[in-house]
Amino acid sequence: ILLSGDEKVTMQNLNDRLASYLDKVRCLEQENADLECRIREWYAKQGPFCEPRDYSCYYKEIEDLQNQIVCATIDNNKIILNIDNSRMTADDFRVKYETELALRQSVEADINGLRQVLDQLTLCRSDLEAQLESLREELCCLKKNHEEEMSCLRKQSTGDVSVEVNACPGPDLRKILEEMRCQYETLIERNRKEVEDWYECKIEEVNREVITSGQEVETCNNQVTELRRQLQALEIDLQAQLSQRDNLESSLAETECRYNNHLAELQSQITCVEQQLADLRAEMECQNQEYKILLDVKCRLEQEIHTYRCLLEG
Predict the structure, then answer these.
(1) 273 CB-near residues (< 8 Å, 6+ apart)
(2) Is residue 158 a part of any domain in this protein?
(3) Are 219 and 312 found together in one domain?
(4) DSSP class of residue 118?
(5) CA terminus-to-terminus distance, the chain
(6) Is there a contact between 290 and 35 (Cβ–Cβ < 8 Å)?
(7) Pair (15, 113) in one structural domain
(8) What is the per-residue pLDDT across 196-228, written as a single tens digit (0 to 9) for each?
(9) Entry pTM
(10) What are the coiled-coil residue ranges (predicted)?
């Protein structure tokens, strides 16, 4: 085959370009082989969890983490509900305690008032006894005076009779004195009976009031004892509820701290895996771009080789 001068120059240029492209292809193939070797080594180091686009293991782990978060949230809500219930129960016990305390103070005030009434009744009884004693002394004095007057009248009556024996018969002094004595004795007996009846009535009334006051005081003492017992029971229940609330709050704080730390660790692991996936995607994208460049170069090279063959055959 005979070639002209221009064709020889063209062939020489094509040969030079072909040699240059072949060198470039060999260089790119070597780089591609090195890159594939690096990728295989990276996959071998990372293990089976880093296979391209195989995220099933991460989905399972994420689902487990979500379930743990849901369970922790439910536990926290239960603990918060228990704390609220304990707080409400403690408030109820506090209200009952305040009510019982106010009732106890009221009963103690009533007892103090009844004691004052009892003291007043005791003083009144003492006064009545003193008055009765005074009336008895006065009655004795009246009897004594009456007897003295009667004795004097008898003496006068005897003297008059002895002096005036021959006088005209006058009124019967003995009978008059006897009538006066009977009148005085009747009056004294009536006064004595009235005083004794009044005294007995007052004494009976005071005794009834004392008995009633004693019963009321005893009832109030029993109520105070019962209220004290209820108050002690309420205080014990209140302390138990407060202790339970403190324990629940402490447990809630520990649970929140533990789950927060666990969630932080899981979030750190997820972030690390996501970063590795992002790096892997970036590297694969870079390889894809290089592959496209190599494919384009290969296509142009094949086209030029085809042109070169056509020229050689023509």
Answers:
(1) 58
(2) yes
(3) no
(4) H
(5) 9
(6) yes
(7) no
(8) 788 788 778 777 877 777 777 778 778 778 888
(9) 0.35
(10) 11-45, 118-297
